[in-house]
Amino acid sequence: MSTCPYCQAAVPHDALCCVHCGRTLVTETVQDRSTQERLRELLEAKGILVGGMTPPPPSPTLIEGPPPGVSPVLRSGEAGSQILSLRTDQEQSLFALPFEETMSPAPAPTLDEREPTPQPSVLPAPTPPPVGVPAAQGHPDRMPQAGDVIEPYEIASEIGRGGMGRVYLAHHRLTGQEVALKMLLPQFSNEPRLRARFLNEAKVLARLEHPNLVPLLGFFESGNRAFIVMPYVRGITLERMLRRQGRLAVEIVVDLFEQLCAAIEHVHRHDFLHRDLKPSNVIVRGDGRVMVTDFGIARAVGGEKMTLPGMVVGTAEYLAPEQACGASRDDKRSDIYSLGILLYEMLTGQVPFHHPNAGEVLQRQVSSPPPPPRAIVPEITPALESVMLRALAKDPDKRFQSAQEFANVVRTTVWPMPGTVDVARHEVRGQASPAPVSGRGSGLSAPGAGIDRQVAPIEFAPTLDAPGAGRAAAPSLKEWLRWGAVVLGLAGVGAAVGAWLRLRG
User: Fold this and answer.
1) Can you tell me whether residue 468 is helix, strand or coil?
2) Which of 2-16, 332-346, 461-475 is the least confident region?
3) Which residues in 44-95 belong to E strands, given as ranges?
């Protein structure tokens, strides 16, 4: 027995072709007369041989080679053999000839008639969904669409997008609660640094709980997608409010700014930095409450940096100088600088440094002094201008050292007159209409994400050093007239009742 060089099957040593693959095994091997005669007759019967029989030479010789594309085949003679050419269109027919007569029969393979034993599948069988709960629609790694069911939530619509992900409005299928699902794009799920940053946002929100911060409801993964679950807030972003109005009244600014500082003070007390304060990350609800969101690049004080050395992350117009130069030495006072830019923009309607080139903006943040606010809005008092410029100092040591200190100084510098707080709150409620708003920018600020419970807005808290603190406001002329009218009305009613009683008596 020998081995077929093509399929490695066992074949007799004198076989002309393999019974398993049909390939010819020899081209010049001279067989005995009986074998060659039978092969010749078989080929002639098939009409494959070209030309008649010629007397064989004394020893095997090769004649002129076949034309291109034609394989040679043996032609037998009485004393030897020679190579003949095959017809081009019948070349493959030779390999299908039954050569059983010219070789010893090969042992037939034994087939097992029993049923094969079922092998365990490589992938586990899919778990059927619970009764009454339909399975998620579509591929688990594709972008969600309206009507898709992801875990216990059903997607309603897309409400925001950024460079790293999307934000969707959804509702819980059992409780009906409206939520904002913040999703990291599937193509970034395999990037360790981006995935760690997304997970870090959920960890930061889990440690914070404040009325002016959008809370965390949960975090889950579905396929190659990761989701942060937050309540849905109906309101307007500070960015859209400023775009609509240009700048805000001082009384409204003080009310909003105090709530904003209260949220950042809470973040700092838990040893975290927001690092991305800007108007699109501040939502004003319909009742006047400020909600701070988007902790995508937040980190712990002194914690591990999420960015590479020299990399600048954030929005150029709101970055502190130490952030703009990529020195990675930002601290709580960097958020104070961003708060100063927000105060500047709310009072003047524009940011201190603006240029189409972000690199130019960063350069100005580091080296150029901000334009004086009173040059833009003359109504700003010199004392308030001094407070704003102190917050925008290039040296962190010359700024306010805490958000609470910043808010206290602003409050004492611009103390509202009696009744101004109510007017400011009324104006804020009028602008913050209860409608979902989508944000813009590279972050995932989830402008539609918010809080469900209705809480009264934060009131102004008078301090001992505030002008007029602890003193009751004097009644105005309108109040005297109103009380006088009430007294006269009561007297008239009393006179009428007395006259009626006398008539009856």
Assistant:
1) coil
2) 461-475
3) 72-76, 81-85
For tokens 């007297």, the residue is: 491
370-406: pLDDT as tens digits: 999 999 999 999 999 999 999 999 999 999 999 999 9
**Which residues carry out catalysis?**
276
Number of helices followed by number of strands (H, E) in the chain:
13, 15
Would you place residue 142 in the very low, low, confident or very high pLDDT band (cuts 50, 70, 90)?
Answer: confident
Work out the angle at residue 480's Cα, subtended by the Cα atoms of residues 475 and 485, and round it to the nearest 5 degrees.
150
- Class of 149-230 in CATH: alpha beta
Q: What is the pLDDT of residues 11-68, one digit of tens each?
A: 776 666 676 776 766 544 344 455 566 667 766 776 655 554 444 444 444 444 444 4
Identity of residue 57:
P
User: Which CATH number fits the domain 237-431, given the four candidates 1.10.443.10, 3.90.770.10, 2.40.50.140, 1.10.510.10?
Assistant: 1.10.510.10
Distance in angstroms (rounded) separating the CA atoms of residues 237 and 214: 13
Identify which of 241, 279, 254, 247 has the alpha carbon closest to the alpha carbon of residue 349: 247
Query: In terms of C-beta density within 10 A (0-12 exposed, 13-18 middle, 19 or more buried), how is residue 453 classed?
Result: exposed
**How far, in Å, CA of 330 to CA of 327, rounded?**
8
Residue 4 confidence (pLDDT): 82
Residue with tokens 């002194």: 302
Domain with CATH 3.30.200.20 in the chain: 149-230
Looking at the chain, the domain(s) classified CATH 1.10.510.10 span: 237-431
The pTM of this model reads: 0.58
Q: How far apart are CA 120 and CA 439, in angstroms?
A: 50
Pick from 260, 286, 292, 291: which is nearest to 427 by CA? 286
Buried b (16+ CB within 10 A) or exposed e, 345-371: bbbbebbbbeeeeeeebbbbbbeeebe
Q: How far apart are CA 254 and CA 250, in angstroms?
A: 6
Percent of the chain at pLDDT exceeding 70:
60
Rg (CA), the chain: 44
Judged by DSSP in three states, 236 sits in strand
Strands, sheet with 153-161, edge to edge from the N-terminal-most edge strand? 149-150, 153-161, 165-172, 178-184, 225-231, 218-222
d(CA 341, CA 388): 8
Three-state DSSP class for 319? coil
Q: Distance of CA 503 to CAs 185, 190, 455, 492, Å?
A: 87, 95, 55, 17
